[in-house]
């Protein structure tokens, strides 16, 4: 099972603390050794780092761990290959342009007998089911919203609903946990396992589950900061993480989740200090 990591904030924030623990799962505290990647949105641009080597041993990961890139939206992925060879072109997250914005996507799961027809606007470069699903998803969005979604304030509910319908359609072929962002918001879909935490004042002192590292967020934040971190399993062992209920899609904006209006029970809390290993 691959590992996902996402961050959405109301002010540009670095992900160094969370990434330190997340990186260890790529060959040190877990068996995901088939590559890793991370993408940071910066204005209209996206800074993407990819490496088909295990993240625990990667010099590129070591650089990112100590590189305080500040971003409103971040998506990272550690791969355990199910479809497609261990190659750079098969390494998540994937990037495409739609409506004049970059979109970043990472998937955890395995889609079987998934062979959709594509229009040709978006084509996979590698051979993973994940990149194929991403291309199909964007293909369908481009058809559904030919005018684009430049006015997010007017169309975010319709976009959210369409993404949820597509997640159900694609997810009928297997596990389809994913993170998706256009730099304005971050979508998180739970098929089997995905959780999140929102950190805001008064900030906690957090301790990583995969590395003996502690940080007091009160020392590195302001009272107005708000940060949502999304992960396959909790990254810390002394905080309460919220499990997204399978089948639900959350949109994170300004450091907090926004569910569809017709969504009922969307989450349940992990007990404090509980860490579930993949």
From TrEMBL:
Per UniProt, which keywords does this protein have? Glutamine amidotransferase, Transferase
Q: Where is the signal peptide?
A: none
Has UniProt tagged this entry with the keyword Transferase?
yes
* Pfam families in the cross-refs: GATase_4
What are the Glutamine amidotransferase type-2 domain coordinates in residue numbering?
2-255
Q: Name one molecular function that GO assigns to this entry.
A: transferase activity
Q: What is the recorded name of this protein?
A: Class II glutamine amidotransferase
Q: Which organism is it from?
A: Thauera propionica
């Amino acid at each position: 099972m691959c590992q996902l990591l996402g961050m959405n904030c109301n002010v540009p924030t670095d992900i160094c603390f969370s990434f330190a623990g997340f990186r260890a799962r790529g060959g040190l505290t877990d068996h995901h050794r088939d590559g890793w990647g991370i993408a940071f949105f910066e204005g209209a641009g996206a800074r993407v780092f990819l490496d088909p080597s295990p993240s625990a041993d990667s010099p590129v990961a070591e650089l990112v761990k100590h590189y305080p890139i500040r971003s409103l939206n971040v998506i990272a992925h550690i791969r355990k290959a199910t479809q497609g060879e261990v190659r750079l072109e098969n390494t998540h997250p994937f990037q495409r342009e739609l409506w004049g914005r970059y979109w970043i996507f990472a998937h955890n799961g395995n889609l079987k007998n998934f062979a959709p027809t594509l229009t040709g606007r978006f084509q996979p470069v590698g051979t993973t089911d994940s990149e194929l699903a991403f291309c199909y998803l964007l293909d369908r969005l481009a058809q559904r919203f030919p005018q684009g979604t430049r006015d997010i304030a007017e169309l975010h509910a319709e976009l959210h609903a369409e993404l949820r319908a597509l997640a159900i359609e694609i997810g009928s072929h297997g596990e389809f946990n994913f993170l998706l962002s256009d730099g304005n918001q971050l979508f998180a879909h739970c098929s089997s396992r995905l959780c999140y935490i929102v950190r805001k004042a008064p900030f906690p002192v957090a301790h990583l589950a995969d590395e003996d590292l502690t940080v007091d967020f009160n020392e590195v934040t302001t009272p107005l900061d708000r940060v949502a971190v999304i992960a396959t399993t909790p990254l810390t062992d002394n905080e309460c993480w919220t499990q997204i209920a399978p089948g639900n899609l959350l949109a994170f904006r300004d450091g907090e989740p926004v569910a569809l209006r017709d969504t009922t029970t969307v989450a349940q809390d992990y007990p404090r200090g509980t860490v579930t290993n993949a």
